[in-house]
């Protein structure tokens, strides 16, 4: 079984890479990257051979993880109570990725939320993929305090510093994220992928698995969304790809595989437009898969829009949403810097609102330092959270 699965992973990587390599050679053009909310044409087609492009150092390399290491880490994450408890296991993994810069700033805060969520220590279920050796070293340096599982991408050519939305390494990270999800699905597990700038409040596994969904992403804004309703061909999508739920099965595999293929196809467009993973989901993939759905949402892939009532984002305010309305804080005493934003504070949100949260995403922060502070403020809303001591990470 394991040999067949490794062969399946190799087939996905080889067939996709070969086809795209032929396409790239015929085009001979380098696409200019754009912000995921903006679109513009490239000023012109650069000259030179395609293989000299920095982009080509990663786009033709399938970032598959070593199958043996991945199988072991996934088994331990999905079934952390051991073989005796397999009958009760969810068979689900919580996954995240990042390079050294991101992990040094945010990984311990992410793991602290997992460990101190109100539904028990979820770091047992966490698979953390480092993009580069430095990232894996940081991940392993935290194993003394948390119970997560560290693996390393074997084909990460990107840098270890911060990358901006729209640069080549941001797109590379998106592809690595989707490839990780595909790897997990093809090995037989369901997965909740979350960017490392999330804080967990409760165990989301049982809620997500109860939805009878193949794919689920949260709303970008406050909406009257029912997590239990399957999207139909008339649905409009504005979803946040920083959190992706994929249920084990062929339908989710097909969806993620097509998402990767479309992403790589965009990289080679001669018109210079690259749509990032979030735009591809909202404008291309979700509408395509639901195009022939019946009135009851009887589509090939069952897609769920997840409510910000349960999966809020800082973009909607410090206390998230209640339907279409933003929730006002009970109190928010904060210190602010004109350039870097919030530098400290104490936040109190309505208890009835916080009781609904499963995760909280700290997007739309003014700066990296503000995001770190916001995650600390959020962790303070959890019970008995240990202070975040970044000194335990070697070399940071």
UniProtKB/TrEMBL annotation:
Chain ranges of the Nucleotide-diphospho-sugar transferase domain: 156-299
InterPro entries, per database record: Nucl-diP-sugar_transferase (IPR005069), UDP-D-xylose:L-fucose_XylT (IPR052636)
Xref: Pfam families: Nucleotid_trans (PF03407)
GO terms for MF: glycosyltransferase activity
Listed GO CC annotations: Golgi apparatus
Region annotation Disordered: where it falls in the sequence: 20-62
Protein known as: Nucleotide-diphospho-sugar transferase domain-containing protein
């Amino acid at each position: 079984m394991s040999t067949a699965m490794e062969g399946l992973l190799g087939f996905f990587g080889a067939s996709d890479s070969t086809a795209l390599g032929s396409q790239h050679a015929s085009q001979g053009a380098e696409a200019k990257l754009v912000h995921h909310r903006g679109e513009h044409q490239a000023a012109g087609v650069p000259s030179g051979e395609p293989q000299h492009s920095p982009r080509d150092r990663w786009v033709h390399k399938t970032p598959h993880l070593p199958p043996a290491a991945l199988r072991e880490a996934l088994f331990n994450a999905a079934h952390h109570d051991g073989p005796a408890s397999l009958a009760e296991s969810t068979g689900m993994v919580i996954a995240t990725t990042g390079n050294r810069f991101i992990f040094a700033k945010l990984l311990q805060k992410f793991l602290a939320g997992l460990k101190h969520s109100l539904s028990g220590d979820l770091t047992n279920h966490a698979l953390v993929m480092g993009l580069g050796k430095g990232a894996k070293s940081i991940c392993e340096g935290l194993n003394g305090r948390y119970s997560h599982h560290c693996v390393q991408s074997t084909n990460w050519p990107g840098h270890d510093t911060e990358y901006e939305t729209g640069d080549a390494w941001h797109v590379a990270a998106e592809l690595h994220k989707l490839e990780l999800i595909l790897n997990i699905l093809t090995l037989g597990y369901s997965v909740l992928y979350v960017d490392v700038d999330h804080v967990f409040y409760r165990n989301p596994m049982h809620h997500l698995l109860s939805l009878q969904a193949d794919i689920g992403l949260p709303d970008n804004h406050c909406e009257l969304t029912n997590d239990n309703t399957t999207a139909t061909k008339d649905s409009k999508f504005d979803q946040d790809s920083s959190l992706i739920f994929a249920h084990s099965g062929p339908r989710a595999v097909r969806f993620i595989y097509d998402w990767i293929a479309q992403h790589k196809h965009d990289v080679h467009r001669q018109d210079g437009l690259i749509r990032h993973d979030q735009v591809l989901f909202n404008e291309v993939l979700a509408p395509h898969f639901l195009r022939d759905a019946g009135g009851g949402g009887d589509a090939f892939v069952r897609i769920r829009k997840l409510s910000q009532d349960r999966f809020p984002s800082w973009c909607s305010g410090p206390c998230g949403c209640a339907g279409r309305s933003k929730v006002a804080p009970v109190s928010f005493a904060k210190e602010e810097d004109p350039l870097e934003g919030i530098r400290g504070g104490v936040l109190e949100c309505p208890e009835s609102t916080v009781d609904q949260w499963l995760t909280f995403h700290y997007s739309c922060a003014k700066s990296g330092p503000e995001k770190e502070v916001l995650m600390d403020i959020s962790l303070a809303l959890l019970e008995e959270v240990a202070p975040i001591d970044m000194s335990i990470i070697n070399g940071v």
